[in-house]
Every structure is written in structure tokens, then in C-alpha cells.
Amino acid sequence: MLLVRLLAAAKGDGTLTLVTANGRQHRIGSGPPHLTLRLHDRKVERDLLINPRLRFGEAYMDGRFSIEGGTIYDLLAMLMSGAEVQGALGRALESLSPLLRRAQQYNPMQRSRQNVEHHYNLSQQFYQLFLDCDMQYSCAYFPEPGISLDEAQAAKKRHIAAKLLIVPGMKVLDIGCGWGGMALYLARHTGARVTGITLSSEQLAVARQRADEAGLADRVTFELRDYREFAAAHRGAFDRIVSVGMFEHVGVPHYRDYFSAVREMLNDQGAALIHSIGRLDGPASTNPWIRKYIFPGGYSPALSEVLPVIERSGLFTTDLEVLRLHYAETLRHWRARFLARWEEAKVLYDERFCRMWEFYLAGAELAFRLQGHMVFQVQVSRSLGAVPLTRDYMLNAERDLAGTSSGHSVERRPSRTPESAS
Questions:
Q1: Are residues 281 and 338 in the same domain?
Q2: Domains in the chain: how many in total?
Q3: What's the pLDDT score for residue 50?
Q4: What is the domain extent for residue 318?
């Protein structure tokens, strides 16, 4: 049976029993774990053979198969441990991937806005079901095992703020500001004046409300703007730029525009920190199910696709850090929280949506554990002297921020300023 052969190629360790719609059983592999995949109609067999990377997730969303002996996470862990399988149509599309990728990642301003609205204009109430108290929808930072999601997200903000080396009064731009958590943190704990831009009207409304409630509206402003149009009116306006979890939505054809915009908006001693999902194993293509249902236009790049563009933009790469399993741990927390509040999510949307979101969180976590995904933080600047020559300042600033994180407003000056190293 062709489907058995396909599953056998994909499967890692363990035993998978396939039960087809006509009741026939096929045992694949041996040893633990033991899972059963029960198909509920004959058409799903054909769909999985043609394009499993897309149709498998769709079949789970529609309840066209069930899993016995485990969860969708357990099944995906088994199937993502082996070779990647494409199916007949999937192989054909993969052969065209270099040509299709530019079209799939072509994100002019209007399409970028539509892509963002597809994902981020889900209700605030939904995201509150599984995110931390500050609504950080990006990779957390786990400096030690066993800490909570809220602690890890707070550590992420400290880690990034320390790398930015912000002196009170600096002007900071947050590209893709989400619900405003990072911008508010920087204003509160570094004395910066922060502008956040987003393409999500839902996130904009929440961010502005949070700034008002925190008493920071005089130091933090939020706008519904695309980075490209914003750059044209703000040349040399910022001392620092931060962008967390937005670069994945830029698209390879627009990397040159993105880094040119970053350079234009920084002043001569300015520096930026870009935090993005990436790939350890080189350029590839976005999973078709993720592209269709979760992040249209999205792509997680290899560093080999990013660093050459930075070099040609006239910016200097002044620091680079790769976070390997931090996002896997973040997604583990999100998935556990989401599953615990499934019924509340179903009231907001429906059962099919909940199954879609579970599939997304499970598959994404495993992509970081098993398939070479990572997060990188690249610091860039217009001047070699924009930041100190050693990384000591990051550690010192991070310790300072950790000691003051319970305060409401901190006028903190870094132990070493950029001028002291130039």
C-alpha cells in the first residue's frame, strides 16, 4: 500500500498502526511508543498521498482521522523524526520551489497588511488564553531551566534591552510592535522615548490602551504604519531600532528594502537589534499548511540569506546570537496553556479552529526540536563605534535591568556608553 510506504519513510522510532477506512490494519515499525492512526474516509488516503505536507494538517482540522495511544503532538513527533515526504503533488511543487518562493514571499504594502490581519487580528481574548501576562507573542528566553513562561518572557525583554544599550532620552523605534509590551518595557525601564509601528489594527488598539493605562502615553506612541512608508519620513530619526518576530513576515525579495529602511532611520551612531526565527540547515520553503492557514507570506530565513543583504546595505553586523531550543520551550508552554483552555477558545471560534491551532503549536514546537529551526538575534549599526568593543556591557546591563525590573520607571545609564569604546 502506497500510504504505508510513505508513512514508513517519514516515521522515526516507534510503532505506528494504520487503520484504513475499510478497517484494514497495517503495522509500521516496532518498539515504543505505540500509536494508532485511524482514517475515517477513503478520500483522506488519496489526499495524503498527493500532498501530505498540506493535507495532513487539513485532515486533522476536519476530524477525518483520529489518534489512539497519544496526541497529535506524539504523532507528529514520530512522523517528523524520519525523512520529509512530499507526495506526488508536493514533489512537483517542491521542484518549482525556487520559482514559486519569490511569488509566495512577494509582500508589497497592501499584501503585507492583509497577511498581518490574517493572523494578528484574532481577538485579544484569544491570545490571552495562552500567552504570558505581557502578551509576548515571540520566542521567550530561558536563562535557566524550570522558570515560568512569564519569567522567561521578562528575561527576553531584558536580554534584548541590554543589547540595545539604551541611554535615557534615546529615541527608539519598535518595528512590528505587537501589543506594545516591548515598547512599554523600554520606556519604563530605560528612560527611552519609543515609537511602535504595526500593521494590525487589533494590536494597535490594545497597545495604545496599555500605554494610557500605564501612564506612559507621553513617552510611547503607536502607529498603524508599514516600515517602508514610515522610513521615508523618518530619516536619521532614531538612536535605536528593535524588531522582534516581524522579520519572518518581510519575505526574501524585500530584505534589501528592509535593511535599507533600517539604515535610513538610524542616526550616525545608531544601532538595531533584529530578532527572528531562522533555519540552521540552509534556505528552504515555508511549509504549505503553515503558509495557507497561519502565516501567509511568511518565511523563516537561513543566515546565509540575511547576512549578505546586511553587508550590501551599508550596515555593520556588530553582534550575532543563535537561540536554539528557546522557542521550542516557549511553544511547549503555549501549547499546554492552550489545551487547558480549549473550551474557552471554542466559544470564541469553533472546534475546527481549535484543532488548527493545536496542530500549529505542536508542529512548530517540533520544527525547533527536530527540523533545524532556531531564533537569531542580529545587532547591526551604522558605525563601528556605536556599541562597545566587548560584550561585557550586555551582561552588566542585563544584571542592572534584572535588579530594577520590579520598579515602575528607571532612569538607567549603562555602565559603558558607546562613546567610551569609540
A1: yes
A2: 2
A3: 87
A4: 109-421
Note the pLDDT of residue 167.
Answer: 92
Secondary structure of the chain in HEC code, one letter for each residue: CHHHHHHHHHCCCEEEEEECCCCCEEEEEECCCEEEEEECCHHHHHHHHHCHHHHHHHHHHCCCEEEECCCHHHHHHHHCCCCCCCHHHHHHHHHCHHHHHHHHCCCCHHHHHHHHHHHHCCCHHHHCCCCCCCCCCCCCCCCCCCCCHHHHHHHHHHHHHHHHCCCCCCEEEEECCCCCHHHHHHHHHHCCEEEEEECCHHHHHHHHHHHHHCCCCCCEEEEECCHHHHHHCCCCCEEEEEEECCHHHCCHHHHHHHHHHHHHHEEEEEEEEEEEEEECCCCCCCCHHHHHHCCCCCCCCEHHHHHHHHHHHCCEEEEEEEECCHHHHHHHHHHHHHHHCHHHHHHHCCHHHHHHHHHHHHHHHHHHHHCCEEEEEEEEECCCCCCCCCCHHHHHHHHHHHHHCCCCCCCCCCCCCHHHHC
Residue 93 has pLDDT above 80, yes or no: no
Q: Kindly indicate the confidence band of residue 106, based on its pLDDT and cuts at 50, 70 and 90.
A: low
Assign residue 66 the CATH number of its domain: 3.30.1050
Instruction: Write down the pLDDT at residue 382.
Output: 96
Same domain, 55 and 123: no
pLDDT band for position 409 (cuts 50, 70, 90) = very low
Whole-model pTM: value is: 0.89
